[in-house]
Amino acid sequence: MLQQIKGLHHITSMAGDAQKNSDFFTKTLGLRRVKKTVNFDSPDVYHLYYGDEVGTPGSVMTYFPFPHIARGKPGTGEVGETLFAVPKGSLPFWRERLSTLKVGEISESEVFGEKRLRFAGPDHDAFALVEVDNDDRTGWLKGDVAEAQAIRGFRGASLRLKDSGATSELLGFMGYEKVDSKDDWTRYAIANGNGADVIDIETLPSANAARQGAGSVHHIAFAVDDRAAQLEVRKALMDTGYNVTPVIDRNYFWAIYFRTPGGVLFEIATNEPGFDADEDTAHLGEALKLPPQYESHRAKIEEILTSIED
């Protein structure tokens, strides 16, 4: 069993409108936009990152906004719901705030003994705020959400699968332990993680496969401390039979990717070097940052991308 994985690193989804996306995460959820860059494989598309003050691994939601993309269709083989951790007793505040700001599809429930407030993002993304006791992480406190209610980072995420067997084995190999199950749901958690510690599997044998689009998660990333740990994980996965990409430099972390048996794209990302690698912490996410290979094309890229007003 691997011991290098420390919980989630980030979750990357697709969106329609970049301005709506930025407004929702910064002005509705009170997160900080910690990076405004481009999709490294398609530089005519933004890559926006939101999280705590410095984009600590385990707090970072990222988006590729494609202006004319069709909405995704939920189904199996994808991340179903992204869970954000909030302090105990804060859900009434969030329910009123989300209602006032006309966020849709709000409902309350209790899953595995945790109260959660479900709601939809601007592209009908499936989110939930989960009350977590004794989460010592600090949220972004320079927005308009107070410390007593601020999002601390991810609690975890759920996977929708037609057959959970092989993915359950994979999570066990990655260091997750089964901690609870009820009906079609099974919870896995990693010990001594970064706070973004749980993965829930929802088994839906009769459901159709998901179709990716706006509001769909593109991939889910798990955190390791550094490149040495990442190489150890890569070798272990390949020895087990997984087809893993070479290490890819994403400027703010190094990444490897592989497709899981249930169809979900997993990434293993390093905690180093972090989002302050190319700009001062006080001004994270303000300027458009480009990777070196696209800097000479900055004028053309800035002409294509629609500006985002803060």
TrEMBL record:
GO terms for molecular function: dioxygenase activity. It comes from the Bacteria. The keyword Oxidoreductase applies. Residues 7-132, 153-271 form the VOC domain. Residues 77-122 form the Cyclic nucleotide-binding domain. CDD domains: PcpA_C_like. Keywords: Dioxygenase, Oxidoreductase. This is Ring-cleaving dioxygenase. It comes from Martelella lutilitoris.
